[in-house]
Structure formats: structure tokens, C-alpha cells
Amino acid sequence: MRVNFTVNGRRQEADDVWEGESLLYVLRERMGLPGSKNACEQGECGSCTVRLDGVPVCSCLVAAGQAEGREIITVEGLADYAKHRDEAHPGDGCASGSCGTSLQRAQRWRAGGTDSGTGEAGELSPIQQAFIDAGAVQCGFCTPGLLVAADEMLEHNPSPSDADIREALSGNLCRCTGYEKILDAVRLAAARQEEAV
Amino acid sequence: MATTGSPTGPGAPIGAPTRISQGSQTKGGIGESTLRPDGVLKVTGEFAYSSDMWHEDMLWGHTLRSTVAHAEIRSIDTAEALATPGVYAVLTYDDLPTAVKNYGLEIQDTPVLAHGRVRHHGEPVALVAADHPETARRAAAKIRIDYAELPVVTDEASATAPGAPLIHENRDDHHIGHVAHPNIVHRQPIVRGDADAAAARADVIVSGDYVFGMQDQAFLGPESGLAVPAEDGGVDLYVATQWLHSDLRQIAPVLGLPEDKVRMTLSGVGGAFGGREDLSMQIHACLLALRTGKPVKIVYNRFESFFGHVHRHPAKLWYEHGATRDGKITHMKCRIVLDGGAYASASPAVVGNASSLSVGPYVIEDVDIEAIALYTNNPPCGAMRGFGAVQACFAYEAQMDKLAAALDMDPVEFRQLNAMEQGTLLPTGQRVDSPAPVAELLRRVKARPLPPEQQWLAAGEAADVRALPGGLSNTTHGEGVVRGVGYAVGIKNVGFSEGFDDYSTARVRLEVINGVPVAVVHTAMAEVGQGGVTVHAQIARTELGVTQVTIQPADTQVGSAGSTSASRQTYVTGGAVKHACENVREKVLEIGRRKFGTYHPAWATAELLLEGGKVVTDGGEVLADLVDVLEDEAVDLELEWRHRPTQPFDLRTGQGNGHVQYSFAAHRAVVEVDTELGLVKVIELAVAQDVGKALNPLSVLGQIQGGTIQGLGVAVMEEIIVDPKTAKVRNPSFTDYLIPTILDTPTIPVDVLELADAHAPYGLRGIGEAPTLSSTPAVLAAIRNATGLELNRTPVRPEHLTGT
């Protein structure tokens, strides 16, 4: 079958899709977007989390045909998505370029070095930058799903408590970090967002 | 800024790694928390993992695995599978191209594809290559295998019973001569002093039988990779592994290719934790690629991943300790039985570790120790973070609490009274010749203020169930909830032990590019998430005084780096990068002396360094710019580096300087237990660890916290359940094998000590594994403290707490 949907703002089309293929498979293997990950392919780990018409879903559990005509945001489009969100609703979300100024206040998360190789300002969404700065990335396989989920949480809950963060991210498994640095990253992104408003 | 995913020419795979360049606005050297050079790629989704590899012409490989644990294979019929449209190849044992049909880390006992017999549930029997993964899966389901089931052996009693089926007949490995039964892989006793005589002096003696469940590494990136057949008859293999050269040594003979025709490149690795030390899909993908002449991609799903790698050895441990009334331990006797499953994997080395570290970080002069690993029909077990030391720590720490209770002493003070320190003689006869701050680590976790009680009430009137056992299941609002506190400390060796030639190789190049001095570091180190690439850039900056560093992809075009395991890579490959940089620096200074030596006497007389892109004296005087010294010349060296040699343990007495370095961590666990439902919430897991020198403090914290939570997992939730009657795995999924979520994990305050080890590069101590040891027994001790139950097995399940 043929499926059409919008991924990160662009119309995409895939032909010869077998009806049993998941949205995750079509994104990864047919559209050249392998950023969404395949850690369990059974809806338990959250590594394949994308937004389907705004709602975070495990793309491994969505049949590709169910995405027909719908809007999908993947980790590859997260920076642009955050930027557009801020342009549409200034102060509502954490805009690329207007965040990242609260480094001194967030000193306890701040790493010592500043590396040009870890991203030019403006390239990344605030949650992406916070994950790097806080040391929330190790092997990185859980990272894309966590970023999509955390970004979505901060969109509707800009000042989450730790319990809120834990609840919102409880569908995303990480095996490397013990989650402490992930909590730090979300707190950091939220703090920078507050600073920016 | 680095990129991945761009094809370098027609027919090149997408997702092959490329070099990563990283600058720094600070010195960016060791001791700074510089950020990961691959961080941007990983947060944008551009970082290519082995499962992301793609080729326009590729086929998908699939592995058919045994549905029974132990059987004779009477026949295999592949005709229908092969006739399926879209299928390009179906391979069985009969298609293996050379006389080498087995592989293995130490003992080559693992069949590439089963031959006449399967020895465990999920053993690979046949391979299919097809144009779609589902086509391959469905074709594999059409392969007809006639199994004649055989009786299974699943524990020590059944494996060594008279007439027990031998898992491996006609063993000729180097352990068969010193084991009592062919179903025992290896045995390592350690005898020192006279445990029986010492026991007679004891005022109290405590003993216990302990059980440690089978834990899975559960790395998130599944086993996967892409094999691309090459025009020269060789193959290019992109995989996620822990040690490229170890894979290569095992792959090439099976393919019948010289090692230089199997070109391996490390693809992105989604975690490892020991589970990628053994081969998984590597040979299979190469066989299919060479047979079909097309690139072949294999990606396991989570179900298959549970069968695709070895697990942590489950163990049964018996311990006896005695102590005098004044709290000094008199002796220790123990017997540790590790279940190695159907193939040897790393079992012999795990036995060596379990045995030599069974005493824990304590001074005990009279010991009688025995550790063995079994061959059974259970899933093969091998390396996992902590490697034999984890199981022992669980048991000896339970014993310490029992001894303290028998003496009516504080459990921390009792441990401190018996703690080893620098200079202690271990049961192996090895003297510990670097800091061993065991008592201090315990003091630090104990001195920390306890978290407030009843935090579920802190927010206001209604109980916040998220802070309670059972969480959002809303099972209690505080009724039946009791708190407990427990302590544990452990000892782990660092690096490969028992006389292994544990070296690494680094190639370092220093040159001027666009007017800027750049260091290029090339090693075969597997970056599995630990941050080795970050540290290599830091070392190059420190030693060569540059800010711009390029990390080459890890591949087999450079010498072996050894394994990313045993907490060894920062020590050994970090040491190799440092060593190569030092030699590059000497060459640069020689060039400088040749060009500029006559202009300043300090070139000949002073100690010279490279700093800030310049040659400077140790007094800080600038002699020349690196740019002027090098001009268009590049200094490029590839060198091996070794740590101090170790010795094998004597097979009878266990004596020998077997280990390179020791690593210590202590935990305090605070738990709350719903005693009515048997649910546990870990409130806080405080850690103190000596790291020698924190090369990257942020990464050190990440390792300690991550290791701590893997220990928590096996304390309260993680266990592969194997049916004792059939030896079949009952829970191969993340639905049924539970790893901690962010709701299950506590805050993890970390206290880092930096007591330098004079023998190690920069004084560093390998850190990755120690926090995984003491976490589990600390949680168990806290649950015992809360409930008063004995709890001699881990993980603890609700029924163990409620007695139902």
C-alpha cells in the first residue's frame, strides 16, 4: 500500500508498504529517519516515541496506515518544532536561541568545558541542549524518545516538580544513567525556560 | 561539526561512522567536565547506531532459534523456506564454509549454527536472508526441524548426578584436567591459613545459603549490524560490540578469510554492560552476505535479544564466618556455584573473580574458598558489569550484617573494624599497594543526613502516592509502610586479570590544519556510552596543549584496544592515548630543537611542555608556536601500552598476584516497604566511591549512578525466569523482565574521593563496576532492617515479604 503523512513539517510518501509495518519501521527504513529508536518494538521502552498530531505515542505500536494524513514530529524535527512553537506562542515554550542563558543559576548541572563541537547556539532545542549539558546522554539510545516526551511535558507543564517529571517520563526506559542526570536535564531546561520568559 | 550517514561513494552504506571533531574554549583537559563530542549527534537523532545502518541494496537476515533447551536434531528441511518469494538464502550447519564451525571467548565450544544437537533454549539453528524482515521471519517459520528431546540438567545436583548427560562430550580445553566432572567448566579454590583452626577461636559463627537470580544486561540498542561483501572476496562489517579485535579473531576463521579481509568498524553502540563481549549476529550476517553477494542487515527484536546474548551468572553461595567477641573476623569459608549455562563464554574468568574477591574488602587471614561454574542446559551466562564480584558481594555483605547482629554491634562499625586498607594482604597473597579507603567510604555514606520520613505527606493534606510503595497503582496512603536503612561495601578488580596480556593501542597524529594545531586520536576502543571518546579528547588536550581534537571511528585498521569491560578502558586505552601523546610530544620537541634550538638555551636545558598551542618551559616561558614548529609536517605514531603484568592463580591454592587494581564503593540504602503487599520503594541510594582521579567528573557521576541502579534492579525486580523442568526462558520481554523506570529509582547522592593510585595513568581508578556491587546488598539490608525477614535471595519479590 501507499501511505502519506507529514513528518517534521514535510509531506512524505512511502510505496510498497506491507500492511503489517509499524510507523517506526516506515520512518526508519523507508524515510531515512532512524532517529526514533527500536529498543523493544513492543511499546515498553519509549525509545520510539514520536508525536502523532501532537500526542506522544510509541511509533512501534502504530500501524503505518494509521498515520495516513496525520502530522508526525520525530527527534529529527524537534529543534525546528520548538522554534516554531515559540514563534507562534512566545514564552509558551522554550525557544531556541532565547533559552540557555541561565547557566550560572543552573551551575550545579553545568559542566566545566564549553565545546564548540557540542553544538552551536540555535541549532538545538532547549531540551536537547539541556540533555547534553547535564550529562543525561550516555549511550544515547533512549535519548530521542526521552527528548520527545520531555519536550511535550514542558509544553504543558513548564514548572514540573520532580514527581511530575518522573510520572511524565515513566514510559521511557534508560539503562545507562540511573535517571538522575535526566532529571537534572529536565530541571535545567525548565529553569532556562523560566529565565527566558 | 561531525556528520554521519552520508554515503562516501556509490554502493557505500548509510550510517557508517565518520570522524568527530571537538574544540574547546577552555583547556578542555583532564579533570574538566567537558561535554561528549558525540552529544549533538545523539540528541538530534543523527548518531548512527548499528541498527540504523542501511544500504539501498541490502537484504534482511533472520535467525531461527531452537524452541527446546536440549534435543537431538534429527533433520532440518529448508526447502519450503528457500522456495518463498523474496528469500535469497537459507543456511544451516551444512553450509558453513570451513572446518572451523565453533567460536568462543576462551573455549571455542559455541556452534555458529547447531550441529545435530541443541543445548539451550534459543540456540541458533538456521539463517534466512530475504528482501524484507517479515519475509525472512515467515520463511524461517517454514523451516521444519525434527527435534528428539533429551533430558535437561539445570543445577549442580542434576549436572553432576551419576549418568547426567554431558553438555560437552570429549572436552579438551585447558580446564578439564582440574574439574571433578565434565559438566563443571572451571574450579578455583583459594586456601590460606587454617580456617578450621581459626574457627575454634571464634565466639560467634554465622552461616547462610544465598541465591542470586539471573540478571540481564538489557542494553537498549539491540544486537544488530550490516555486513557488506567486498570485491576482494572479503567483507566489511559494521557492528555494535565491546571489542572489535576479539570479534575479528573469532569471525575470520569461521569465514575462512584472513583477518585483513574482515574489516570491522564500530557502529553506534546502544549500551553493553558485558552483553556484547560474546558474538551475536556478527558471523551470521557475514555468512549471508558472502553467500548472497549482497549487504545483509540483522537487527534483533527484544524477544530475540534475550536469547542473543549471555546473562549474568545466577549463583548459589554458601558462606560461614566467625568472629571474636571484640568484633574481629576469625575466618571465612565459602562455596560459590555459578550456573554458566550451555556454553563457556566468560565463565572461567567469572569463576576467578568470584573466588578471588569472595572475601570482600575485609582482612581475613584464614580462608577456605571454592568457586565453580557449571555447564547446564540453561541459557549461557558470561560477562555482566561486576563479573563474579557482584554475586559474592551480595552474600558476604549479608553475612557481615548477621555477624554484627550476633555480636550486637553496629553493622557499619563492625565493617570498619575489619576493613582492609592499603597494605592488606588478600587471600590470594597479593598485597594491596594503592589506597583502599573502605572504612572512610562507609563513614561518608553513614554521615549523610537521612531523607525525611513520610515524604508522601510533604506536599500537603492528601498523600502523594508517587512517593509511596506501589506508586500510581494507589495501593497505600501510608498504611503498613515501614522504613529500613542498610549498608554495604564491595571490592572489584580493574582490568583483565590472571596473567592476561591486557594491552591497548593508540594512534595519535599532531598536525596543523588551517593554521590550527589539531590532534587526531585513533583507537579501536568500543565507545558503548561510557564516554571514552570524551576522555581521549581530554587526554590529547592535556598532553599536547591543543584545544582542537578529532576522534577517528573505531575500527580494525588500528591495533587492538582490548575490551570495553572490566572497568578498564580509561585506564588502559586512556593510558595508551597518553603514552602515544607523550611520544608525539617528544618528536615535536625534537623538531623544535632542530629548527629553533640555537635561538634559546632553554630548548636544551629546560623541561618543555606543550600548552595553549605553544612550546613552553616548565617555568612558563614561551619558546615557539606549535604552528611554527610543525609547519606542514605531521607527527603520527601508533603505540601499544600495557599496565603492570598479573599472574595466574595457582589452581590448588589460589595464590598469585592476579589483579591489576582494585576499586571500592559503599552504599547506604533507605527503603520503605508496604508490608501488607510486599512492595518496596527505594527512597535514597547514597554512594561513596574512590575514583583515584576523576578525568571527567560529570561522566564519573553518570557511571556511578547508572551502576547503582543496575544493582537496585537485581535487588527488587530484575530476573530472567528459567523453567527448572524444561530449561526454557519464561520472560524474554520488557513486559515481563522489568528494569527500573524513572519512577522506581531514588535520588542518588554521590560522594567522590580522589585518592591517587601511583601505578595508574593520572592516578585514576577504573570505576564502572564497583557501584553495581554494593547497591544490591545495601537495598537487601534495608529491606531486612524494615521487615525483620532473613531474605537470602535476590531479587526480592512481594511473596518473599508477605509470605504468601
The secondary structure category of chain B is alpha+beta
Percentage of residues in strands of chain A:
5-15%
Chain oligomer state: heterodimer
CATH superfamily of the largest domain in chain B: Aldehyde oxidase/xanthine dehydrogenase, molybdopterin binding domain
In terms of DSSP E residues, the strand content of chain B is: 15-25%
GO molecular function (chain A): 2 iron, 2 sulfur cluster binding; metal ion binding; oxidoreductase activity
Keywords (chain A): 2Fe-2S, Iron, Iron-sulfur, Metal-binding, Oxidoreductase
Pfam family, one (chain A): Fer2_2
Protein name (chain A): Oxidoreductase
What does this structure look like?
The complex is a heterodimer of chains A (197) and B (804). By secondary structure, chain A is an alpha+beta fold. Chain A is built from six helices and five strands, in the order ββαβββααααα. Chain A has a five-stranded mixed β-sheet, sandwiched between helices. With 804 residues, chain B is an alpha+beta fold. Chain B folds into four domains: 59-150 and 224-269 and 276-305, Aldehyde Oxidoreductase, domain 3; 156-216 and 311-390, 2-Layer Sandwich (Aldehyde Oxidoreductase, domain 4), CATH 3.30.365.10; 434-497 and 658-802, Aldehyde Oxidoreductase, domain 4, CATH 3.30.365.10; 503-642, Aldehyde oxidase/xanthine dehydrogenase, molybdopterin binding domain (Aldehyde Oxidoreductase, domain 4, 2-Layer Sandwich). Chain B contains 19 helices and 32 strands. The relative contact order of chain B is 0.13. Mean pLDDT of chain B is 97; it is low at 1-10.
Topology (SSEs and partners):
The complex is a heterodimer of chains A (197) and B (804).
Chain A: E1 3-7, E2 10-14, H1 23-30, E3 49-52, E4 55-58, E5 71-73, H2 78-88, H3 126-133, H4 143-156, H5 162-168, H6 180-196
Parallel strand pairs in A: 1-5
Antiparallel strand pairs in A: 1-2, 3-4, 3-5
Helix pairs in contact in A: 3-6
Chain B: E1 20-22, H1 39-44, E2 59-65, E3 71-77, H2 79-82, E4 87-91, E5 102-103, E6 110-111, E7 117-118, E8 124-130, H3 133-141, E9 144-149, H4 156-159, E10 184-192, H5 195-201, E11 204-212, E12 224-229, E13 235-239, H6 244-255, E14 262-266, H7 282-292, E15 296-299, H8 302-308, E16 311-312, E17 315-323, E18 329-339, H9 347-356, E19 366-374, E20 381-382, H10 389-406, H11 411-418, H12 438-447, E21 481-494, E22 503-513, E23 516-522, H13 532-544, E24 548-551, H14 569-596, H15 602-605, E25 608-611, E26 614-617, E27 622-625, H16 626-630, E28 635-642, E29 661-674, E30 679-690, H17 697-716, E31 750-753, H18 770-787, E32 793-794, H19 798-802
